[in-house]
């Protein structure tokens, strides 16, 4: 069974000002997709804390790490900055697929920033912090993640000679 972790980056959710709905949607959705959930964290919008949690997930060999929140342009939105330096192979097509899927429902989806890619065997995807973005992100994860996991395991491609 593939292992997953979810990180919500939100000062307000961290302080208990509002409920972390997007993180809960991801938790339930990833379980439905067959992932064992290793952790669900709610962190403040701080690069160091987000980065540290991502490093821990990579070190622990998590197969899929999904973040929610912190992908906008406010001064507090720093999730891509915490994530990008830790990605070894960028996969911008994942976020392009999310924007294409969501655009008709939410035109401002094109304003979302994020990073996606792989490090070691961990697939990392930044999603916006709304419940709708979490639901749409699960659609894209369902479409693409198993193929990515297969490639990371060496099952889909043979090494070049």
From TrEMBL:
Q: One short Pfam family name for this protein?
A: MoCF_biosynth
User: What pathway does the UniProt record associate with this protein?
Assistant: Cofactor biosynthesis; molybdopterin biosynthesis
Q: Which PROSITE patterns match?
A: MOCF_BIOSYNTHESIS_1
Query: MoaB/Mog domain: which residues?
Result: 5-148
Does the record bear Ligase in its keywords?
A: no
Q: Show the SMART domains listed in the entry.
A: MoCF_biosynth (SM00852)
Keyword Protein biosynthesis in record:
no
| GO annotation, biological process | Mo-molybdopterin cofactor biosynthetic process
Q: Name the SUPFAM superfamilies for this protein.
A: Molybdenum cofactor biosynthesis proteins
Signal peptide location: none
Q: Which UniProt keywords apply?
A: Molybdenum cofactor biosynthesis
Query: This protein is called what?
Result: Unannotated protein
């Amino acid at each position: 069974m593939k292992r997953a972790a979810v990180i919500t980056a939100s000062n307000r959710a961290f302080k208990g000002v509002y409920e972390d709905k997007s993180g809960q949607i991801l938790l339930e959705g990833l379980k439905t997709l067959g992932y064992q959930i290793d952790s669900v964290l709610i962190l403040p919008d701080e690069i160091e804390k987000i980065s540290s949690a991502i490093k821990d997930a990579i070190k622990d060999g998590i197969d899929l790490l999904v973040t929610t929140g912190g992908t906008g342009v406010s001064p507090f939105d720093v999730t891509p900055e915490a994530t990008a330096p830790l990605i070894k192979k960028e996969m911008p097509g994942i976020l392009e697929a999310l924007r294409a899927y969501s655009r008709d429902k939410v035109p401002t989806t094109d304003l979302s920033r994020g990073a996606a890619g792989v490090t070691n065997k961990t697939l990392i995807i930044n999603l916006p912090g709304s419940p709708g973005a979490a639901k749409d992100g699960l659609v894209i994860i369902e479409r693409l993640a198993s193929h990515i996991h297969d490639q990371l395991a060496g099952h889909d491609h043979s090494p070049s000679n």
